[in-house]
Structures are given as C-alpha cells and as structure tokens.
Amino acid sequence: MRLLERMRKDWFMVGIVLAIAGAKLEPSIGVNGGPLKPEITVSYIAVATIFFNSGLSLKTEELTSALVHLKLHLFIQIFTLAFFPATIWLFLQLLSITPINEWLLKGLQTVGCMPPPVSSAVILTKAVGGNEAAAIFNSAFGSFLGIVITPLLLLLFLGSSSSVPFTSIFSQLFMTVVVPLIIGQIVRRYIKDWLERKKPPFGAISSSVLLMIIYTTFCDTFSNPNIDQDKFSLVLILFIIFSIQLSFMLLTFIFSTRNNSGFTPADTVAIIFCSTHKSLTLGIPMLKIVFAGHEHLSLISVPLLIYHPAQILLGSVLVPTIKSWMVSRQKGVKLTRPTV
C-alpha cells in the first residue's frame, strides 16, 4: 500500500511538471476560448465534478459535524478576508519605495482581497487526509461571502468601485458547488455499501481534475503578454508571492497548533489551505468588472495569475510533508489518550 501511494505521489509530481511544460509550449490550447474551453470545462464541469466527488465520498455525519465548528469557520474567514488583505496593505507600504512596477503592486493588493477558491483547497485537504468537510464548507461559504466583501475591500484599499452582478455569480456558485455536493450526498445514500466495499479511487479523480486546473491556469498565465514585460519586477513579484504563501501557511500552522487552540491536526490541514488560497475563478471576472476599461487591468491581473498556480504547485509539493506531520500527530494523540 505504501509503495502504491508513493508511486501515485511520484506520478502526480510528474503530471504537474508535464502540465506546466505543456502550458508553456502551447498555451493557446488551454486558454479561455481555446480548444479545451476551460471557461466551461474547468469553471463548471471540473468544479462540479470536484464537489460531486466530495459529496459521494464524504460521510454525511462528517459534513454535518463540520457545519457547527464555528471557531474553525471564524478563524478561516477572518484570516482570509480581514487579516490577509490588511497585512498585504501594510507590507506594500514598504514595497512602495522599491522600483517594482506600481501596478503589479496594486495587483498584489487585489490578491489579498480575493475570497478562497472553491476547488484547490478542498482537493489538497483531501489529498492530505485533513478535515475535508470543513474545507468544503469554508471554500463554498468564503466564495459566497467574497462576492459581497471583495468589491468592498477593493474599494477600501484601492479606491475602485463598480456594480458587481451578484445574482449571476451566486447562481454559478450554487449550481457548481451546492447542487453537485447535495446530489453526491443523495447518491451516496443509495450506494453506501457498494462505496465502502469497492472503495472507488476518489483521490485519483481529484488529482486528475487538479492537473487539468493546473494546466489551464498556467495556459492563462503564459498567454498574458505582460508576463514577458518588466522581468525584474516579475521575478521579484514571483519571489514575494511564494514568500507570502509560505509565511501565511506557517502562521496559520502556528496559530492552529497551539495547546489551547481547540483544533485537531485534521482541522489544521483545512485551515492551512483554506486560509491562504485565493480564487482565480472568481478573482479574474471580479477584476474585469471592478477595473473595467482600466488601461493597466492586464498588469493588475498578473499577480493573481501567478498566485493561483503557485498556491496549487506549492500545496501539491507540501502534501507529503503535511500528511506525514498529521499522521504522526494523530498517532501521538492516540498514544497519549488515557485508557478507561
């Protein structure tokens, strides 16, 4: 079993490399409007597949218990939509004196204002074996919350405002997240015994969908003409983005593993990914609406186009390490638990 699991991890890492290389060689295939039609296959079909898969594999009692874990939900949402953007704003006050392109810096602020994604945090939490139910709830709830809060944050930090089509975005989220999850739970009731007996490869399905998301996201990134401009600023922004992600992942890890935190190791995994990931699916349409007609929109969008694949790449690389930590902590808890 360990050998098979190791082989799956190795093949997944090879898949990531091939996906990025393929996107670099021919980004036009997976770009929006290209042959793969990611605006449909990823935004709708892939996301719906992820949540149907989660609804099918997740025990109903686990999902129900996750809904009442208010402390965990508050931690993730406050970190994502308050602490994250405020910290980025303070950090950018220091970076404003550097020669980094000012519109790329403004783009970095927009990243901080974005809601969590509806897919990558769930997939990575599931890959580690963390609290998938909590990840699902916070990804979905954070996305709905972000529809209202993100435009307000952009107005607060950047002074940009516009009317956002709340109804269409809400309906898309409802149809791609809530409905597939409910259908998956209903189907699970009828084939529960079969699922427990056959144990379908839910992890492999999620990994395959994630590779598709990685590929199409990098296609979008590499097809942006501003990626090849101002290389000095871009290299610095890339370094800053990875530094921010690692720092915030470490910060959430420290906060959620304190003795009096009340979080389990599985909760910590969900917190790490849900608190630090940002949505490209909701982010780019929002930027196009909020900064409609802005001459520097493409430059403002670049940090988010970099952040999204970077968070998936970094998260995927860290999955084995985080999983080893979680398993060792869970074993430690079992060993120290008093016998009756």
UniProtKB/TrEMBL annotation:
InterPro entries: Na+/solute_symporter_sf, Put_Na-Bile_cotransptr
Ranges annotated as spanning the membrane: 41-58, 70-91, 103-124, 136-157, 169-190, 202-223, 235-256, 268-291, 297-319
One of the GO biological process terms: sodium ion transport
Membrane topology of this protein: Multi-pass membrane protein
Matching Pfam families: SBF_like (PF13593)
Presence of the UniProt keyword rRNA-binding in the record: no
Family: Belongs to the bile acid:sodium symporter (BASS) (TC 2.A.28) family.
Function: Does not show transport activity towards bile acids or steroid sulfates.
Stated name of the protein: Sodium/bile acid cotransporter
Protein's organism: Homo sapiens
